[in-house]
Amino acid sequence: MPDRLPENAAPPADFTPGPAARDLLRRIRAGTLATLDRNTGHPFASLVNIGTDADGSPIILISRLSTHTANLEADGRASIMLAETGKGDALAHPRLTVLGQFILVPREAADEGRLRRRFLAHHPKSQLYAGFADFAFWRMQVVSAHLNGGFARAADLTASDILTDIVEAQALIDAEEGAVAHMNEDHGAALNLYAVKFLGAPDGVWRCTGIDPDGLDLQNGPLALRLPFPQRVADAGALRMMLKQLAEQARAM
């Protein structure tokens, strides 16, 4: 029996595909990239590390010597699959397929520095080759997505269902680098509280790897978590108040 619901069937009442999809998009750090083979047109699948821009648009760092890069240069249409892993049947865990068009980000582009910083925060070992001349960042222009959360828990989604609205949030985007550094340098205990109290994670050296209007990304070695904010934040002042409020709530739990 297929996982996907029949047309016009109502999803389970406890199934909220938008938040579930956004969590996978922000939290899963590697996935399958499916490009169109430039010679045959067949789907060509490969494994890549994945990061996200401030709005959630997927970012990849790939070499122009790779087959998937040659495919994207010929036709930027592609999809990525982000899958949760765990014990038991792999198909029992949620996975998200995101479809769109990958666009090369030139090194001289105004936003290349932000993409580089955000990606390397999630993938610090990529520092070893990120500066090589044949490597470059590509960002996906999302068209749609499909979430499969298990039996009878599937949904087709639009780009706006999974991406973060960054309209009127440029002040926060500009402040992100400093805010992330400040949290990691001065508020490690608060980051650990967020992970343990709100997300049920084990104690550890949790670090902030990204902040956007909808939430905060946390990482401890191979473990990655997403802490959604209860309300949207759009500037440094609102972020400061939000993080203080969350820390106070976590200490009281």
Automatic annotation (TrEMBL):
InterPro entries: CREG_beta-barrel, DUF2470, Haem_oxidase_HugZ-like_sf, Split_barrel_FMN-bd. Residues 177-245 form the DUF2470 domain. It comes from the Bacteria. Pfam families: CREG_beta-barrel, DUF2470. Residues 20-160 form the CREG-like beta-barrel domain. Gene3D superfamilies: Electron Transport, Fmn-binding Protein, Chain A (2.30.110.10), PNP-oxidase-like (3.20.180.10). One of its GO terms (cellular component) is cytoplasm. This is HugZ family protein.
